[in-house]
Structure formats: structure tokens, C-alpha cells
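Weekly sync notes, structure subgroup
Attendees: PM, AL, DS (notes)

Item 1: joint prediction request from the bench team. They want all two components modeled as one assembly rather than separately. Inputs as received:
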Amino acid sequence: METMSEIAERGYSVPEVLVSTVWVQQNLENPDVRIVESNEDPLLYSMAHIPSAVEIDWTRDLNDPLTRDYLDRDRFESLMSRCGISNDTIVVFYGDKNNWWATYAAWVFHLFGHTNIRIMDGGRKKWTDEGRPTTTERASPESSTYKAPIRDDKEFRAFRDQVLKHVAEKGKMIDVRSPAEYSGERTHMPEYPNEGALRGGHIPGAKSVPWAKAVAEDGTFKDAAQLKELYETGAGLDASDDVIVYCRIGERSSHTWFALRYLLGYPNVRNYDGSWTEWGNLVGAPIEK
Amino acid sequence: MPPKLQEILDDLAMFPDRSDRIEALIGLSREYVHPSEAEVPRTEKARVPGCESEVFMALDGNHFRFAVDNPQGVSAMALAVILNQGLEGRVAEVPDELVYEVFGRELSMGKSMGLTNMVRMVRDAAKAT
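Output from the run, pasted for the record:
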């Protein structure tokens, strides 16, 4: 059973951003904490979730319905109010797929300056595997008042023109998709079109480090030494680098963004959420196979 | 649309509210029985491509049987039950749109691709029989 002291011993730059399942269970009733479940599978939260956890759904809650973009300030404030989150609330995210969607939601919170977040190490699977309490009762916290700034993308988000410039300057990039996606092999079914992008391959100069390599068998994050082996020895990154990470739409790369930003303490990491669904279709953009 | 499958869709259509629909789909997922490797071999040929939940398919008599090897792949389990109960091997007229009819359009790209590929596996297998 993993505890906070074990997380503290892993050598992370900001260890307090990762909390154990034990800590979460001890803080279920803490009024300063709001637990948020964010999944890819739309049925999971209703099937069972951590008592008092609210659900934030990526498609319904975090995306703009008409523009390929994230929600604006007004919608973010409404979402926070509905979730009972105030400006000083500690928001603890967890979810399926080893917290892939949880880190995505946490990344969107950063665009509004809400950096007082935690990720529950091991995610939903670890909680259920340990037999911790769950409920089917949908949480309905008392509405809060939340004042958000206008969304500021520049610190955490990269756009295509910035990526083109980054490529020209031979900046560091990590492609976190599967090796088959990175190499441009066909991963779709024969006789069906390649969903999402006209071309297969990767952005020139990007190194391949599939996102899931950052987690151990039980879904918890690997320790700092293992992460350095992966990203520094393996992919040539350095903490002083300006790094852009990407995948297909920016969700898997949020997981890597979190690992680099908080667990290894890289100050300049941006997520290119346009990712391969933009770059693979972009007229005039170079690719490598 | 095959009659048995249409019957399941008609039942689901009785739940236009999203949370009610989710409860109905969870109910279907609970009917899923996890097959052994002997029942559904976990081979590359049987693997549903693009499905993060590690899903495999085999023809069991005249019905399609899926193995969802991720205990958290609840949507895949629900769809596995729908395809198992709603289709027989000779039926190939099942559209990709089935995924959206069942789950709605608020799915991630990866999730919709994986679930759609389950439908496509069924259709291709049906064409081959």
C-alpha cells in the first residue's frame, strides 16, 4: 500500500503534486479538497466512483462545442461552481487509463491558472484494486463562487505556427503515441480510411517516447531516476530545454507534460493539442516517417 | 438493421436522458461473461485494432463473442453484449453509426475508433462466412 512518504522518496521535483490512494481516502471529507474523476470511458463514473468525487467529462465539460478549442472563462467559472470548487480548493484528479484523462483535465485547469492540483497516483484502477470504498451516488456539492482569469495558453500550450518555428529551430519534441503511429505504419483496419489524419509519420525531429512508459505495471508513476533514464538518457532531453509534447489530440501528451513539468521539474514544457490530427493534415507541414 | 439488434436499439431509445442511457448500458455491460482463451483465442488475427481495452473476437457458433481483457473497458463490454445478442454470423448489415446510436456522439476519438472497429470486425467476419 503506497503512502505519501513512499512518493516523497521517489526523487520528484514537486512530489506533493502526486498523492497516494491512502491520502485521498483520509481526505474524503476535507472541505479544502475536491476530488474529480475524469475518464475516457463514459460509463465508468456512473458505475462506481470515489465517494464525494465529481465527474468532469472531457467532451462535454472541457471542449468548446463549436470551435476546436477549450472552454472559455465563463464556462470554466460555471463548471467550477457546479463542482463546488473555489479558487483556493485543492483539486485531486484521478481516472481511467493510468490517469491519462485526469492529467488532461489538470492541464486544462492550468490554462485558467488553477495550478493547485494533485494527481492520485495509480488512478481509478489502483483505488478499485485495493478495494477502497466506492459509490454509485452522483456527488452534488454545494455551488461555489469562482473567479477565473481570461484563459492564458502561452505557458502550457503550443500552437501549429509555434511548432513550425520550433521544428525550424530544431527544438526538442516528444511524440508520445505508439511506435506504430510514430513510424507511420497503418494502424487502422485494412480497407477503411485512416481516421484522423491523411498522412502517417511524425513531426520532424520528434523523439518517440510512448506515454505509458512513464508508468509502472500497477499504473503508478515511475520514480525520478527511471523517468530521467527514459526522457534524458533515452530521448536526449534536459531540464533547461524548451520542450513540446504531442500525440493525436493532446490527451496522451498531457500525461507526459505532467511527468516532465512536475515529476522532473522541467519549467518549459508545452502541450501541442492540435497534435497529429492537425499536423498530419496540415498543408505545407513537413513530416518524417 | 437486423431485427434483434433493432430491438436492442429500440429498448435503448426509451432512455433519451443521458444518465438513464448510461445506466441502461451499464446494465448491459453486467451481462458480459468473460470468455476463456480457449473460447476466444487472444491472437493477433482475433485482436480488434485500435481498441485500447485489448479486445478479441471469435465466432461462437452463429454468434460473435468478444473478450474484453481490460476490467475497466465497460463500454466495450456493453457493445460486446449488444453485438453478441443482436447479430448472427451471416448478418453483415451493421453500420459504423451503431456506435453513435448506442453511446451518443460525446466519445473521444480513440474510444469511438476502438468501438467502431469492433463493429467493423463483425461486419468483415460476417462477409467472410
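Discussion: Chain A has two domains: 4-129, 160-279.
Action: AL to compare against the crosslinking data before next sync.
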